[in-house]
Amino acid sequence: MATMVSVSDFHIHDDSRLDIIKIFVQKMDALSPDILVYLGDVGDPWEQTWDVIRETQSWKELGELNRRRRRQGLSNIWVNRNHDYSAKRRYLPGARMRPEYRSGGFSFKHGWEFDWIWNGFDIIWHIPLFPGISRLAYWLSSTFPRLSIWLWSCLRALICFNKATPYQQKARGLGEDWNRHVGLIHLRAMDYARRTKVRLVIGHTHCPMVYADLLADDGDMIDSFSYLYIRDGRWELKVLEIS
Predict the structure, then answer these.
(1) What is the reported pLDDT for 152?
(2) What is the average pLDDT value for the chain, to the nearest integer?
(3) Strand intervals (E) in the chain
(4) What pTM value is reported for the model?
């Protein structure tokens, strides 16, 4: 069975975290997973243009890592999403771009698809405002990310998405370490994993967490410095050793 690493949310737009990138590259060279999945928001064109991002040493370090891995017959997958949705396939050398990725019973999605502000049409728990709207939201966010992000920004202004609904209350009641936003994203992601019968891996929230064999959030490379390591069908959250 293939070994896999999922990592997300570098948000590269300058070289302010170049030291973290170098530690990550060293770790991936040492682990040599069969499949390395960049699970979205690798570059951040909300902060800088792609021309600037691609000239940073941080971005070049990831490109060189991918090239080395490709020469060794290893795979690199880039699942782009809400921050790096405007990227073109050639932007990250050595990585194949996918809207989502599946391998060995695992499904990799960035996680923005489950953001309650975008996909929270169910104003009360499990009762959608319009029948089928959740599945439509999943499809739109994967197929038309530009349109979806524009709709997302419009939805944030609606009063109904700021109400204390039973859905939000359930999320808040699950633990003090969950904030309302992250809790709702994780709940929706777990619901998706159950319905589609997959083991789901996401990023997006910057909140690393594992829920048995149902859902894993790989965290981020900004604050948590975490990634998900999958071996022999088992997943484990790991953290870079930052000196």
Answers:
(1) 67
(2) 84
(3) 4-7, 35-38, 75-79, 96-98, 101-103, 106-108, 199-202, 209-211, 215-217, 226-231, 234-239
(4) 0.82
